[in-house]
Structure formats: C-alpha cells, structure tokens
Write a structure and sequence with these properties.
heterodimer, A: 102 residues, mainly alpha, B: mainly alpha, 7 helices, 78% helix
Chain lengths: 102, 171
Amino acid sequence: MNSIPIEYYLILSAFMFSIGVTGVLIRRNAIVVFMSIELMLNSANLTLVAFSSYLGNPIGQVFVFFVMTVAAAEAAVGLAIIIAIFRNKLTVNIDEINIFKW
Amino acid sequence: MNFELLLFIVFALVAAVSSLMMITRKNAVISAVFLVLNFFALAGLYLLLNAQFIAVVQIIVYAGAIMVLFLFVLMLLNTGKEEAILHGKKPIKYFAIFIAAVVFLQVAYLLVFGSGSFTSNPDIEASLSSGTVETIGREIYTKYIIPFEAAGFLLLAATIGALILAKKKFE
C-alpha cells in the first residue's frame, strides 16, 4: 500500500492542470473552454486527495467534496449563460461573443 | 514492478492521454467523451489512494451528472465542428502553449529536484480510515456542518439562477 511516491501524483496533477490551461487559451468553443476548467478543478482535486491520503487526514477529502459541489453549481449556471448567449448571438465562439466590448 | 505501480501507470496514462485528446479534438462531443474517460481514470486513482467515497462521488457527480449536462447542452446547441485547433491568430496560440509548458516544467522541476523534504511514509491505518464514508460523513456533519449547509444553499441558488438565465431571452 502506498508504495508510490507522492511526487508521481503531483506531477500527473501538474500535467493535467497545464493541459487545462492550454485548452482554455487555445480553444474557441465556449463549452470546451468550460470542460477545460473542469479538468483544472479535477487536477487540483487529485492533489488534495493525494496529500489527504499520504498524511492520513480526511480534511482534504472533505474539501474535495465541497469543490465538487461548487463545480456542479458552476457548470449549471455557466451552461445556462451559454444557452442565453446562444439565443441572442446564435454562436458559442468566444471570439464572436464580445457584447461587453464598447 | 508491483501491482499497485502498474495500476497507477495505467490510470495515469489514460488520464494524461485523454486530457490531451480532449483539447485537441475538433468535435466538441468527442472532447466531452474523452473528458468522461479522464474522470473514470481519476476515480481509479482515487481508489488507489484509499479514497473510496471520493471515487464513487467522482463517478456519480462528475461522470454522471455534470458530463450529461455538458453533452445535453452540446447536442441542444449543435455548434458544429471548430476549425483546426491552431487556425487563426497562430502566434498567440503557440505562445499560450509555450506558457503552459513552462508552467508545467517549473512545477515538475520543483517536484523532482526540490528539497524532497516530504517523506512519503504514510501511516497506513490512518490513510485507510481517512477515505471511508464513515470518516468523511462524521467530519462533514460535525466540524463542517455550516460549510455543508452553505454548499446546499449554493446549489439552491445555482438551480434558481440557471432556471432564470435559461428561461427566456435577455431583455
């Protein structure tokens, strides 16, 4: 049990976070940008669970539970906003959604 | 090579490759399916870390509820395919990839060549008991009862907000 160095988990988490950052920066579809944000939240969760397990302290996992709650709320509201924008602009391309630009 | 390390390598490879595939597919629906695969691999990693409760919640909430919501909206809006990933504004996109790579290399460098003061010598009993539903439930319902209620209120607010936002056109 737990014969794997914790650094392996942390490096995997850092890799997934970088991929999420890249996805947010290079993708133009707003829904894919949202999915990249979910990926970043998950990589942070992996770090929390890894430390929680290796330190034998359940608080990290309680925090992951709250992160999941907030992610669910964020996904619901975010997708509702995307639907509302799609009704007005008929696109989800974030290059064309510039209604706040004066 | 022991069995645990083998499982870790399999799950980590699936997670890494599926996340890469997610941001490089042109079709958003395929991206979403790769993200589901990524969530399942993460649930396997949580099981390796003795976090049973979080692993089950990961599959039910993330791979179940949230990704169904994403796929539902994707198919409802039918956004079609994006153009090639690096199409248009190329220098900025390459710069973005460069920045992300630099961030990753910095973190990896620190983890590999850093002080190494964190000894991965866990207390197996504490680690095993910290992931059970019993332990996490006791923490949530005693010490963290107020954050728990706040999370419930947040979900209520998000539900109402989503309903109002998606109901009709913006004025």
